[in-house]
Structure formats: structure tokens, C-alpha cells
């Protein structure tokens, strides 16, 4: 994605209806799955990190993106559990 598109997302995510509606749609599912235990959550394709902040309510979040620009925006949100990588080439073990 072009850096200019990340800039637009970063500026709009807190207030734009689309981003708020997406979180409002997902929240009931996460609430139902929540056991009170702090799970580890993998955020695949984290973009500018707005969802990382939301997901922190449900566990320890590790965000992955291939774009260094995306991860730079995440760092502007003071996020630190970030990985630059291609999910198609990553191996994960089941916990």
C-alpha cells in the first residue's frame, strides 16, 4: 500500500464510521470468546495499529505487517510488539 494511504488511515481511524463499525461488529464475538485469561493474539496485517490498541483489551497482541511504513505508524502509537514479516512464510506452533 502507498504510504499516503497509511497516512489517511492513521488520521481517520479514531473517528471514521467504517473503522468504528468494524470494531463494534467484532466486539461481541471477542466478548463471547473471552475467558478472562490474557491470551496471545496475532494481528495479521496490522496496518497502522488501530486494531492492536482495541485488541489489547482481550490479551497480549503481536502485530505483523510486511510494510515498514505500516509498522512506522504503529510505532507512532507507541506499540512495541511488532513483527515485520510475510505471513505466508511464517511458521507458528499451536499453543
Strand order of the largest sheet: 1-2-3
Poorly predicted runs: none
> Largest beta sheet, briefly?
3 strands, parallel
Determine the mean pLDDT.
93
Can you give a write-up of this model?
The chain is α/β, with parallel strands linked by helices and 95 residues long. It is built from four helices and three strands; from the N terminus they run ααβαβαβ. Strands 1-2-3 form a three-stranded parallel beta sheet. The longest helix is centred in the N-terminal third of the chain and has 17 residues. The termini are far apart.
Q: In a few lines, what is going on in this structure?
A:
The protein is α/β, with parallel strands linked by helices. It contains 4 helices and 3 strands, in the order ααβαβαβ. The model has no long low-confidence stretch (mean pLDDT 93).
SSE blueprint and pairings:
Blueprint: H1 3-12, H2 17-33, E1 39-44, H3 50-55, E2 59-65, H4 68-76, E3 82-84
Parallel strand pairs: 1-2, 2-3
Name some characteristics of this structure:
95 residues; alpha/beta; 3-stranded parallel β-sheet; 17% strand; globular
Amino acid at each position: 500500500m502507498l504510504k499516503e494511504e497509511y497516512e489517511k488511515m492513521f488520521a481517520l481511524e479514531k473517528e471514521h464510521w467504517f473503522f468504528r463499525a468494524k470494531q463494534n461488529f467484532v466486539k461481541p464475538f471477542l466478548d463471547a470468546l473471552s475467558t478472562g485469561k490474557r491470551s496471545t493474539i496475532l494481528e495479521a496485517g496490522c496496518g497502522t495499529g488501530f486494531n492492536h490498541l482495541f485488541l489489547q483489551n482481550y490479551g497480549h497482541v503481536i502485530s505483523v505487517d510486511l510494510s515498514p511504513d505500516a509498522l512506522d505508524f504503529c510505532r507512532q502509537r507507541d506499540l512495541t510488539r511488532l513483527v515485520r514479516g510475510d505471513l505466508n512464510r511464517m511458521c507458528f506452533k499451536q499453543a
